[in-house]
UniProtKB/TrEMBL annotation:
This is Methyltransferase domain-containing protein. It comes from Curvularia kusanoi. The keyword Methyltransferase applies. It comes from the Eukaryota. Keywords: Methyltransferase, S-adenosyl-L-methionine, Transferase. Transmembrane segments: none annotated.
Length: 273
């Protein structure tokens, strides 16, 4: 289990890097924004109440607030929230609230059944037991109004393996004792300063078994689509018109199961009953 202090210390130490992570991962950012926008359009709401749980430095929260939505931002990292507050101020927008809290106990910090869209785009990465992950998904659903959308994000096992193959391919053999266990469990605790959980796309619906009576899976989406992360990085600096067209093309198949294994980040869209 990754403790609260471990995760908080990690993101406090890497807050500036996390602020700019989505610059290179722009395809992930734009695909995720498109998925959120589709949820809001489906609800027919011009000014949605949105809570961004684990939103760190506020890239999604600020973008959504700029569109006129009412956004509450929650994160475990005080330094990330300070960056979000400064960036919101510089953008001349207001967030409804900025709350320093853990996703495992968010029901103590925000009102239940209050939000049209609930984002959980990070907390599940660091919960290494299924019980903890089920607790967070239950908490997230508690924040949602009946009929609201919940967007969850997972990191995939295949994303990590591709990254390792590019950077340090001999590690698989040299550290096979660790990786044999990792391939069975998805728990990445190789470094003492942080722990994370990676999922096989085929196992995602099983992760949500405990809430199947409360919400339906609307779709799953590969944030990197058929391009994968490394190819998607080539789009980081293209113009807005080019990027929009690439996202259009990626989205044509991003919710098809044959693209899921290409994902580094996988979104799951739930609709609360």
């Amino acid at each position: 289990m990754a403790t609260k202090a471990l995760v908080e210390d990690w993101y406090d130490a890497h807050a500036e890097a996390e602020e700019h992570r989505l610059d290179d991962a722009r395809l992930e950012f734009e695909v995720t924004k498109r998925v959120i926008s589709d949820c809001i359009i489906s609800l027919g709401i011009k000014e949605a109440n949105i809570i961004d749980i684990g939103g760190g430095p506020g890239r999604y929260a600020i973008s959504l607030a700029q569109q006129g939505h009412h956004v509450t931002l929650i994160d475990i990292s005080a330094k990330s929230l300070a960056i979000a507050e400064a960036n919101a101020r510089n953008a001349d927008i207001s967030l409804e609230a900025i709350i320093h809290a853990n996703a495992l106990d968010i029901t103590r910090h925000a009102a239940s059944s209050s939000f049209d869209v609930v984002l959980c785009l990070g907390p599940l990465y660091h919960l290494t037991t299924r019980e903890e992950r089920a607790c967070v998904v239950t908490n997230v659903l508690a924040m949602a109004k009946p009929g609201a959308y919940v967007v969850l994000a997972y990191v995939t096992v295949f994303g990590h393996l591709r990254d390792m193959a590019r950077r340090d391919s001999s590690r698989l053999v040299n550290e096979w004792g660790f990786y044999e266990k990792y391939l069975r469990t998805g728990v990445y605790d190789r470094r003492p300063e942080n722990e994370s959980f990676h999922v096989y796309p085929r196992d995602v619906e099983g992760e949500l078994e405990s809430v199947k009576s409360e919400a339906a899976v609307v779709k799953m989406v590969s944030c990197e689509g058929f391009l994968g992360y490394e190819t998607g990085r080539a789009l980081a600096k293209v113009g807005d018109e080019d990027m929009e067209r690439w996202v259009d093309v990626v989205m044509r198949s991003a919710d098809h199961p044959y693209t899921f294994n290409s994902a580094e980040h996988l979104l799951v869209v739930l609709k609360k009953s």
